[in-house]
Amino acid sequence: MPLLSSVSLAACARRVPGPDYDRRAVRVGMVHLGVGGFHRSHQAVYHDELLRQGELDWGICGVGVLPGDRWMRDALQAQDGLYTLLVKHPDGTIEPRIVGALVERLLAPEDPDGVIERLAAPATRVVSMTITEGGYNVDEATGAFVASHPGVLHDLSHPEAPRTVFGLVVEALRRRRERGVPPPIVLSCDNLVDNGGVARHAFGAFAGLRDPELGAWVQDAVPFPSSVVDRITPATAEADRAWLAQTHGIEDRVPVVCEPFTQWVLEDPGGSTRPPWEAAGAVVLGDVRPHELMKLRLL
């Protein structure tokens, strides 16, 4: 039984729908920090749809930020970034699909400068993240950025070898500013009200600790649109891997299970170059707050 990879893709795609585009021609246009099940069931699927439509500038570089992310990077690396999406319908049927949008995989603890350079590259026009609601290092009581966090203190002292998303992204933004490269869209995809505003506050505060002028530039010049994301994505069980192998003859170490319903509502970042997310089924609006309120009330 073949392990899902570029070598076995043609054979696997005869059993399960897969990328109908040339992945060798895909260029990285978005870097995503925090590659887990939800990113792979949600944002990566939207980008896979864009690639199917010929928008080959919007491949994804997935970045693991923490040492514990190594296993995911290694598993995806062995499969050349390919994985199977298992959409489970209410009637019990399962709809598999091979997703090919993750065309590059990096691990920040292993090569922080390589990650920073990818973030700083002119071709990178979107930096997205799923770092959990608690990953923005904001005090729940005061709303202030926690400057005393050990990771923050390390990154302020070692900006060339950061350990946090703040250190990685802000150093990349600093290099872009120094090189005259426009800033990317920095897009939170976490379940937070006004997640764009929270991200702007956190990254701007960290940048201000490094250099007040840099902090002001991050606050003023970098687009931080808010977004609303939704797709139930339970943890993948061994039974799901076994079903894929027994039913379709595909070995996949990291398939993703999800429900059919998916939603992505984004605040329009204005004049920034961005993917045509609408073409993949997302909604881009001037104000996402009504959708945030609707989601909160329904939940």
Give the helices and strands, then pairings:
Blueprint: H1 9-13, E1 28-33, H2 37-41, H3 43-52, E2 59-64, H4 70-78, E3 83-88, E4 94-99, E5 102-107, H5 112-120, E6 126-129, H6 150-157, H7 165-179, E7 185-188, H8 195-210, H9 212-221, E8 227-230, H10 238-248, E9 256-258, E10 263-267, E11 283-285, H11 289-298
Structural class call reads alpha/beta
Strands in their spatial order, largest beta sheet: 5-2-1-6-7
Number of DSSP helical runs: 11
Overall outline: globular
Radius of gyration: 19 Å
- β-strand number: 11
What does this entry look like structurally?
With 299 residues, the chain is α/β, with parallel strands linked by helices. Helices cover 36% and strands 18% of the residues. The protein is built from 11 helices and 11 strands. The strands form 3 sheets. It has a 5-stranded parallel sheet, sandwiched between helices. It has a 3-stranded mixed sheet with strand order 4-3-9. A 3-stranded mixed sheet has the order 8-10-11, covered by helices on one side. A hairpin with a 5-residue loop joins strand 3 and strand 4. The longest helix has 16 residues, at 195-210. The radius of gyration is 19 Å and the shape is globular. The mean pLDDT is 97.
